[in-house]
Design a protein that fits this description.
The protein has nine helices and four strands, in the order E-H-E-H-E-E-H-H-H-H-H-H-H. The chain has about 250 residues and is α+β, with helices and mostly antiparallel strands. It folds into two domains: about 100 residues, 3-Layer(aba) Sandwich (Glutaredoxin); about 110 residues, Glutathione S-transferase Yfyf (Class Pi), Chain A, domain 2 (Up-down Bundle). A four-stranded mixed beta sheet has the order 2-1-3-4, covered by helices on one side. Helix 1 packs across helix 6, helix 4 packs antiparallel against helix 5 and helix 4 packs parallel to helix 6. The relative contact order is 0.19. The model has no long low-confidence stretch (mean pLDDT about 95).
Length: about 250
């Protein structure tokens, strides 16, 4: 197996890499750990304790954007970056917007509060943060997206890294029952639905659903039962710890 991916299926950044690999027909094994439980060996590979990590023939690659660009460079078909230079730059910007602004609102302010704090660390959700996020941060991000997204199809005609990155964030947010208000942001709602209906997303969704709401200690066995291509070794530990990981 040429590729090993370290990172949890629930992570939007891991999902982005896996969708790219599925589209390019690349086989891989996965160690589906959350960044909060990576051991010392994991930290040596990922000094920021972030996922995903890609290992290929002993070489280590960090950060989902770097990894996806690398996969595009070595396996250019099907192309996931537009051929036109201006379109390619815009696609990279929208990927960055998803990975930062959307992630800040949907993942770190919403999903982290409602899922990670409660089920990983046993802490109470900060409801004030959640309310501010729903009233301010998410609407601001969706207002911007609504002006960028097409009425039908994908952003640049064929599927691109920008489409994938945006949809990945909303898939994770859906785990805490967030859905786009289609009456207020109809383009965004329809766009996300179109992208998530693609076969790679649906394939990964089966594995995501198999592990969802399972305790960290039981997620690996649940994924094995669901047929996930697991590594024989894990970099996970039993006790989660706080840090500054990117999911």
């Amino acid at each position: 197996m040429a590729f090993t991916v370290i990172g949890n299926y629930v992570s939007p950044y891991v999902r982005k890499v896996l969708v790219c690999m599925e589209l390019k027909g690349l086989s891989y094994e996965i160690d589906p750990i959350a960044p909060f439980i990576g051991d010392e060996a994991f930290e040596r590979m990922s000094p920021l304790r972030r996922i995903p990590v890609l290992i290929e023939d002993g070489r280590v690659f960090n950060d989902s954007t770097v990894i996806c660009q690398y996969l595009e460079d070595i396996h250019p078909h099907p192309a996931l970056y537009p051929a036109d230079a201006a379109d390619r730059a815009r696609a990279r910007w929208l990927e960055e917007y998803a990975d930062t602004a959307l992630a800040d609102a949907l993942i770190w302010r919403l999903f982290y509060q409602k899922a990670i704090r409660r089920y990983v660390f046993g802490e109470a959700t900060d409801e004030a943060v959640v309310q501010e996020t729903l009233e301010r941060h998410i609407p601001r991000a969706l207002d911007y997206l609504e002006a960028q997204l097409p009425a039908d199809g994908f952003l640049f005609g064929s599927l691109s890294i920008a489409d994938i990155a945006i949809a990945c964030m909303f898939r994770t947010a859906a785990f805490v029952r967030f859905a786009i208000d289609a009456t207020r942001w109809p383009r965004s709602a329809a766009f996300v639905e179109r992208v998530l209906a693609l076969e790679p997303f649906r394939k990964l969704a089966q594995l995501e659903d198999a592990m969802l709401r399972q305790p960290l200690a039981e997620q690996r066995s649940a994924l094995a039962a669901a047929g996930a291509p697991l590594t024989t070794h894990t970099f996970g530990t039993a006790v989660p710890r706080h840090g500054l990981p990117r999911m």
